[in-house]
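seq:
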Amino acid sequence: MIKVLLSLLTSFSITWFAIPSIIKVARMKNLFDEPGERKSHHSSIPTLGGVAIFAGIIFSFSFWSATSFYPNRQFIISAIIIMFFIGIKDDIIPLSPIKKFIGQILSAGIIVFFADYRLTNMVGILGIYELPYNVSCMLTMFTILVIINAYNLIDGIDGLAAGIGIIASTAFGIILFMLNNSVLATLSFSVCGALLAFLWFNISPAKIFMGDTGSLIVGLILSILAITFIEANITNPLTSVQLSNYLQSHFNIQQIDFDLSHSAPAIAVGILIIPLFDTLRVFVYRAFKRTSPFRPDKNHIHHKILALGYNHKKASFMLYFVNILFVILSFALRHLHSGQLLIILVLLAMILSQIPFLIKYLRLRRRKEHSI
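struct:
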């Protein structure tokens, strides 16, 4: 427990003290994200916050997990380093989408084929249970790429990506710690600490952005945590016992049923609901409009909230609240099968995502009534 907390404090401290220097260097070298038609900011903002996030996470994770035997640590760090160089190159000199995608595939390949992090069972979703090795690898690669890009896409307003990352890394970190996976719990809280420090400088009005360097790194790590969370609960029959024993011994909670073996995939989706559902919604919208699903626009849910007149801070806090609501709901309904829980989560997300459009419609209707 002490190491996990120290990892949070270490990554927080490194990121906190690094950011002012990075802002100074970015201003000296004119490394800014300039305002534009598709941007939500109206002034030039330094974009290298991901460098500080990377430094905080890598040092803290490497240092505080060093004494634990965990052979996959080197592969995790290698994959993160690839994402770092892809991100920082894109933040300084924009890369073509295909080059960024190749870098993401390389990182995902290291995680799947070398570290052997794989989704091996669908627990009955669509009637599918155990997965053949090749299917398992392809599904896991797809999952990693989706989470990386979904997290990258929500980095559109001040404070949003950092706050969502804090919520998700904390949720995964607590469960992984209770499952005795102290190494990945250390990684989770290293991410949480770095993002907490970064958020202080990124909350509206932002002094710095995380850029692709930060969003690609954090997205990759969240995908690793999500896959580990799912597999730990599906493949380890002692999982629910460990969780129950931990809660009973530390919080005197008796006879609690914490079996996540059938609901873990849906709970992971619930934890990452904001980036995952918003990306799905935008891609479906673009498909109906017959435009490229990768063409940037202002149809993300955070853009719709801003269009109602709310500022960046209020929009981000609204989405934090919604994400926390989904996390609580996912665990509260953990007794449901993953397929059932997924349907509930997606339906609720669809309903909530229509609220900005409903508010806009009601406002227009009122204006018409007043003008008559």
